[in-house]
Structures are given as C-alpha cells and as structure tokens.
C-alpha cells in the first residue's frame, strides 16, 4: 500500500456490506498494517484511485477510511504531498480502535510497555481517590462487576466485559472527570491484553483475587491499601503479558 509496494491485498473478499462496514474494514486493514509496522512511519501511500482499485472498494469508502485514520493521528494528507504515515508519537494510541489494531497481531513490546506504564501511573492513583470518594452506587457497580467476573471467568467474553466494567467503575468512583475520560482507553487496554494472554494457552494464573483486593480496599475506604492493591494488580498483569509474549 506504500508507493513502492504491489497492491495485491485481498481486502475486497472480506469487506463486503454496507458503506459503513466497508469503510470500517478498510480502516481496520490499513490501521493494522500501520500499527504492526508493515507500513512504516514516513511511508507514503499510493494514490486514492490506485488504492481503491487495489482494494476493490469505492473511492469514497477508501477516502472515508483514510479520514478515520487521520482523525486517530496515524495519517496526514496534504495537497500535492499525498498521504503519509505519521510518527508513532503522533498516534492516538489510547483510541480503542488503535489498541484493537495493535493486538490483532503480535503487539510491539515497547507498545505494551507504554500501556502498562500508563496504567501503573493512573490506576493506583484512581484507586486511592475511589477509596476516598466512592458512594453506594460506586460500591454496587464494583461488586456487581466482580461477581460477574467470578461467574463467567476471564476466559469468556462476558467475563472480559465484566473486567472492563470493573475498571470503568473504579475510574467512575474517583468522581474526577479527567480520569473518567480515560475509561474507554483503560478498559480497551485491559480487555485486549487479557485476550492476548489467552491466545495460545490459558491464563497463567487467576487475576480475579487481585481485583477482589482492590474492591475490598475501596469499599473499606482505605486509600493506601487500595493504591497498593491496584499497583500489584497492574504489575502482575504486566508479568503475565510478558510471559505470553
């Protein structure tokens, strides 16, 4: 898909349907190629007409997909200069779609490290705030999510959805709008790393007790214990992910 690559992709065979589905399939194909490094930062994409023909999609579907990637910071289009892949520092790596593209193949080690470093900064602090500020609705949301994690296990989509709900409830319990804005990104990172760890084997250990310790500390209103429990949860999750890689 770069100016010096052959355009022989099979996207057209898997991207049929409505215009919205088609645009999403093209965006997913290009996004995955960029995030995986198949199309590298600085590479220039071939022209709209050529790529649309190569992918066997309409020019409008291709153009809309490029707009999606541009909005996420992966591409930049300039008149006469064409469309180029931007440096990784410009990407919105916390966008749930970008996270999905990163984990659709073997994720970059540095990318995974960056995610966990962010979580290690944000989530222990969030747990401390949650322990200080939680109300009865927050407590119910945390307990309900934990109960569903136990019932379904993290080997199922329902269990992973409950895991996302747990982290969402924790950030919500901070009653800090800036932290709550990270909910979708943190939830996506948690979900994709959990699913990635199970691609070739079961989870190396059960992480639900780690979540229970966080929940208990938040419910008890103990900020120190909540922060420590969340820090341990993130560190253990990183160890599990490294072993899976």
Explained architecture:
The protein is mostly helical and 245 residues long. The protein contains 11 helices and 2 strands. The protein has a two-stranded antiparallel sheet. The longest helix is centred in the middle third of the chain and has 25 residues, at 109-133. The protein is elongated.
Helix content: 55-70%
CATH class of the largest domain: Mainly Alpha
Strand order of the largest sheet: 1-2
* Gap between N and C termini: 28 Å
Can you name the CATH architecture of the largest domain?
Answer: Up-down Bundle
* Rg of Cα set: 20 Å
Compressed to H and E, one letter per element, the order equals HHHEEHHHHHHHH
Count of DSSP H/I helices? 11
Strand segment count? 2
Give me the secondary-structure category: mainly alpha
Keywords for this entry:
245 residues; disordered N terminus; 2 domains; Arc Repressor Mutant, subunit A; two-stranded antiparallel ribbon; mainly alpha
Fold blueprint:
Blueprint: H1 19-35, H2 48-55, H3 59-71, E1 75-78, E2 82-85, H4 96-102, H5 109-133, H6 136-152, H7 157-172, H8 177-180, H9 183-197, H10 208-220, H11 223-244
Antiparallel strand pairs: 1-2
Helix pairs in contact: 1-3, 1-4, 2-3, 5-10, 5-11, 6-7, 6-10, 7-9, 9-11, 10-11
Short description:
It contains eleven helices and two strands, in the order αααββαααααααα. It has 245 residues and is mostly helical. Residues 3-10 have low confidence and may be disordered.
């Amino acid at each position: 898909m770069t100016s010096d690559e052959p355009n022989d992709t099979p996207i057209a065979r898997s991207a049929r349907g409505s215009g919205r589905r088609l645009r999403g399939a093209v965006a997913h194909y290009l996004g995955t190629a960029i995030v995986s490094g198949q199309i590298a930062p600085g590479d220039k994409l071939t022209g709209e007409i050529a790529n649309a023909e190569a992918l066997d999609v309409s020019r409008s579907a291709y153009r809309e997909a490029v707009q999606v990637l541009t909005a996420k910071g992966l591409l930049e289009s300039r008149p006469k200069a064409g469309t180029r892949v931007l440096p990784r520092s410009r990407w919105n790596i916390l966008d749930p779609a970008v996270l999905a593209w990163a984990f659709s193949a073997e994720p970059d080690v540095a990318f995974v490290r960056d995610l966990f470093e962010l979580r290690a900064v944000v989530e222990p602090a969030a747990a401390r705030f949650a322990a200080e500020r939680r109300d009865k609705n927050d407590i119910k949301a945390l307990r309900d999510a934990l109960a569903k994690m136990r019932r379904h296990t993290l080997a199922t989509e329902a269990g992973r959805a409950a895991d996302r709900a747990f982290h969402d409830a924790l950030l919500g319990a901070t009653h800090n709008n800036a932290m709550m804005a990270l909910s979708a990104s943190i939830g996506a990172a948690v979900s994709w790393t959990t699913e990635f760890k199970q691609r070739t084997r079961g989870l190396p250990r059960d992480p639900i007790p780690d979540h229970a310790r966080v929940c208990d500390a938040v419910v008890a209103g103990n900020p120190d214990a909540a922060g420590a429990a969340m820090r341990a949860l993130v560190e253990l999750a990183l160890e599990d992910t490294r072993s899976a890689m």
